[in-house]
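Task 17 of the worksheet. Students: predict the tertiary structure of the chain below and write it out as structure tokens. Keep your answer in the requested format; marks are given for formatting as well as content.
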Amino acid sequence: MSDPKPLEEKIDELHAIIAALTAFIAEIPDAKHVEMPKLKAAIGENKSLTEAQKKVAIDAARELKHAVQAKGEH
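Model answer:
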């Protein structure tokens, strides 16, 4: 069963996730210590994103941050 979202919406979400990855990767090697305000600021400065994309990007960055922190605890 295919996703009912229009292709444009999927592309917008992908663009937002790429922006989150870009902001996050820019902070490596200290990714375990990245603070959300720093990520939010980096994403907020991305003028190519809409406000909806920024929200998706911030959510994706938060998930990345938690995943890296959890991996570091093992």
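Marker's comment: The chain has three helices and no strands. Helices lie at 7-25, 36-44, 51-72.
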